[in-house]
Amino acid sequence: MKNRKHIIGLFSAFFKIGLFTFGGGYAMLPIIQREITEKQKWATEEEVLDCYAIGQSTPGIIAINTATFIGYRTGGIPGALAATLGMVTPSLIIITALSTLILKYRDNLYVGKALLGIQGAVVALIAVSIIKMAKKAFSGIFTYILGGLGFILLFALKVPAYYIIAGALALSIIYTLINSRRVS
Amino acid sequence: MIFLELFLNFFFIGITSIGGGLSTIPLMTEILTSKGWVIETEILDMIAISEMTPGPIGINMATYAGNKAAGILGGISATAGLVAPSVIIIIIIAHFYNKYRSNLYVNGIMTVVRPVVTGMIAAVCANLAVLTLFDVESFTSGGGLWSFFQPIPILIAAVVFIAGYRFKVHPVLLIVSSAIAGIILM
């Protein structure tokens, strides 16, 4: 019975985290820390940071990775599923409601104008995010070349994104193999 | 079967998204537009709604796109697809947690893939900027140089960029104010 209570607790804790964070991933850390380490004591501060690092650097959505990791560590596979489900449920409800509304009122004059205003803003917001990401991603000439390559391949040469990402992943494995040989 | 198609496509997007919600954008844009689920300018609406509402951006975008393609069940299929690789990979990692080995490959991925994806997001951003801030059509049909620029979207974009980058104004506030600016100015 204690176990079932914990599973429900995981679901509701991550439901709250999903409901109260805007912007995903990075914006989520303070709330995760408060809910998971301070209130529930499911993990220590250090463990949360650890799994956050893992969540950031493995493929997939950072927020989901973190939820799955904490859920699994404290409640096994049912815990992982409960935490993840809790995390996505608010998005599913809110976005489903909103997108239905928008599709319905898209042809309304004012909604159309508002969306046009928003479009310019979003381009600028993406640009701001790119600068923030670039500060973390770029260090040294090698990474600048890689970034330039990603840009040119997609923008100018219109290479499908699939191939570019697959190529980058292959390159990262080669890079790791060379690097680990040099270390040992 | 569209639900399976949505699930599989978003599964693939999930595997290849590394380092934050926006990293799903290049591949998502490509898949959504080539399947005809969403048109290119709608990507911007999708991002705006995803940033304005609570929850991870990637999840919000998947739900929106799935909804647009095939209704409520479509939204659930796309989201399940996006989440599934994370759940599988993280359970495996959490089970065989080996700090040293995973760190080595993680380092490789971070050093190599992250800059490439950042460049790719910049490419998508440039494409979207061309679509929204400039009017290529009336320029090529002989409207003169000034018809090439869309002054109001350019103004909004410039103000939002400065407010967001320099003064760290919250994105939600910026999106709401540009919606109001759009209603008044356009």
Supply the key terms.
heterodimer, A: 184 residues, mainly alpha, 7 helices, 0% strand, flat, B: 186 residues, 2 domains, 8 helices
How would the blueprint of this fold be written?
The complex is a heterodimer of chains A (184) and B (186).
Chain A: H1 2-20, H2 29-39, H3 45-57, H4 62-105, H5 109-137, H6 141-155, H7 161-183
Chain B: H1 2-16, H2 25-35, H3 40-52, H4 57-95, H5 99-133, H6 136-140, H7 151-165, H8 171-185
Explain this structure:
The complex is a heterodimer of chains A (184) and B (186). Chain A contains 7 helices and no strands. Chain A is mostly helical and 184 residues long. The radius of gyration of chain A is 21 Å and the shape is flat. The N and C termini of chain A lie far apart (50 Å). Chain B is mainly alpha-helical and 186 residues long. Chain B contains 8 helices and no strands. In chain B, helix 1 (2-16) packs across helix 4, helix 3 packs across helix 4 (57-95) and helix 7 runs antiparallel to helix 8 (171-185). The longest helix of chain B has 39 residues, at 57-95. At the A-B interface, helix 1, helix 3, helix 4, helix 5 and helix 6 of A face helix 1, helix 2, helix 3, helix 4 and helix 5 of B.
